[in-house]
Design brief:
Elements (H helix, E strand, L loop, with lengths): L5 E3 L2 E3 L1 H9 L4 H9 L5 H14 L9 H7 L9 H11 L51 H15 L5 H19 L4 H25 L3 H18 L2 H17 L3 H17 L4 H17 L3 H17 L14 H14 L3 H14 L5 H17 L3 H17 L3 H13 L7 H10 L2 H9 L1
Length: 443
């Protein structure tokens, strides 16, 4: 009989302990959905369910923390009918996607083994992400590292490959990872779940920032949080929750964004997080506050982030944390100064950020150029605004970024008082040329 070996770093551990490591995180699907909905603690969730009961016609009833703890255990009991109504109401997800198994399904084949003729769309992230429990170590112990290698390659490709081309590949990679989870146990499964969570985070980033599909991104972040919970990786969980805060923040739902950021900070403390990681969460808060019309609060958050970067910490950022730097913080700051009406400061900050930006960060370059153009519109300098907008369009022709194009469209709206000038007409010719228009419609 073959014995499967597992490793924790260089240390050999028995299969029994590896199985305990796999099962220790409990019902991660319910936990992830709870946290994504903004309930950072079991007590907060219990209070919310108790308060919601009368509003949906269930009368006065109390849901205890003990009950939440049972639902988030490795073997959660099937909730009774009124509890199901509460859970679905609070989390806006079907009960079947919250980690519960109906008693009448116990005798049916596992979902990971059930044949299905219905195939998801090639570009779609797996819906619901029912994380399969391991059945046997069919895959070799190297499967987690092998899957991670592809995830790392996607991480690098994001900065140069067209998002419409990369997203289907990343989505298919997440689908593969989901299938492999059912065939992997122990440490290999944990490595696989970590890489799957990163892949789902990347898919959500593309959906939100590059393709402007916030609803799809929101659902993808829930699945990413489920995978991070399976991996028991608090820093990945913090990164996912902070990214999820952008969605209500950009929709000007400030309280919901703040709740997700509080959850992100809680996870970051468990990491522990590096100074750069903590500063990035401050930067996310600043952008959400700016979008919600509170630029002064945003500037305070940015000042706090700058202090953190100056102080530093002994902790290092994870390898997948590639989307933030002091230059990017300066770009956040310049945009906030612009929205606060501090145009001279915004011009200086954004100009310095553009000069310091590495050559391979084309997506961020288009955003900074768009903000510089907006500064010149505010200062009533249409020629300079058009020059920055034209440079941004040059960059977007190389690396498409929906967020950057949004900046240019906002600039063009601001240029309407100078619509009859030659520079604005040239910008219109470029902005509404055949190729640009068709590309925008396709994307």
């Amino acid at each position: 009989m073959r014995t499967t070996l597992f490793y924790r770093g260089e240390e050999l551990i028995p299969p029994e302990e590896a199985q305990r490591v796999t099962q220790s995180s409990g019902n991660t699907r319910l936990k992830a959905a709870r946290q994504h909905a903004g309930y950072a603690s079991q007590q907060a969730f219990a209070n919310a369910l108790t308060q919601a009961a009368p509003r949906i016609g269930l009368g006065a009833m109390e849901v205890s923390v003990r009950q939440i703890r049972r639902w988030e255990s490795p073997a959660p009991p099937w909730p009774r009918a009124d509890h199901q109504r509460l859970l679905v109401h609070a989390l806006q997800m079907p009960i079947e996607q919250l980690g519960f198994t109906a008693p009448w399904q116990n005798s049916e084949p596992a979902a990971s083994q059930a044949p299905s003729n219905a195939q998801p769309a090639p570009s779609a992230v797996p819906a619901g992400l029912p994380l399969p429990q391991p059945t046997a170590a069919v895959q070799p112990p190297t499967i987690g590292a092998d899957y991670t290698t592809i995830t790392v390659a996607h991480r690098r490709l994001y900065w140069s490959v067209q998002p419409a081309h990369l997203h289907p590949t990343v989505a298919e990679h997440t689908r593969l990872g989901l299938h492999l989870l059912a065939e992997t146990t122990g440490v290999a499964r944990r490595l696989l779940a970590t890489a799957l969570a990163e892949s789902l985070l990347l898919a959500g980033r593309i959906e939100f920032f590059d393709l402007r599909q916030p609803d799809e991104a929101d659902a993808t972040y829930v699945r990413a949080l489920q995978a991070a919970g399976e991996a028991n990786d608090p820093l990945l969980g913090a990164a996912i929750l902070a990214h999820a805060a952008f969605i209500p923040g950009w929709a000007q739902h400030r309280d919901e964004a703040a709740e997700r950021l509080r959850a992100a900070r809680t996870y970051a403390r468990r990491g522990p997080a590096s100074a750069e990681f903590v500063a990035w969460i401050d930067a996310v808060e600043a952008e959400c506050d700016t979008r919600c019309g509170h630029p002064k609060d945003a500037l305070r958050a940015i000042a706090h982030a700058e202090d953190i970067l100056t102080t530093g910490s002994e902790h290092r950022s994870p390898e997948w944390f590639t989307w933030f730097s002091p230059v990017r913080l300066a770009a956040f700051k310049g945009n906030t100064q612009l929205k606060a009406g501090r145009y001279a400061q915004a011009h200086d900050t954004l100009t310095a950020a553009l000069e310091a930006l590495p050559a391979d960060e084309g997506k961020q370059r288009s955003v900074i150029l768009g903000d510089l153009a907006a500064v010149e519109v505010a200062r009533k300098h249409p020629d300079e605004a058009c020059a920055h907008a034209q440079a941004a369009l040059d960059q977007l022709g190389i690396t498409w970024y929906a967020t950057g194009m949004e900046r240019i469209r906002e600039v063009r709206q601001g240029l309407q008082p100078w619509a009859d000038t030659e520079c604005v007409r040239q910008l219109d010719d470029r902005l509404y040329g055949w190729q640009t228009t068709l590309s925008a419609l396709r994307r």
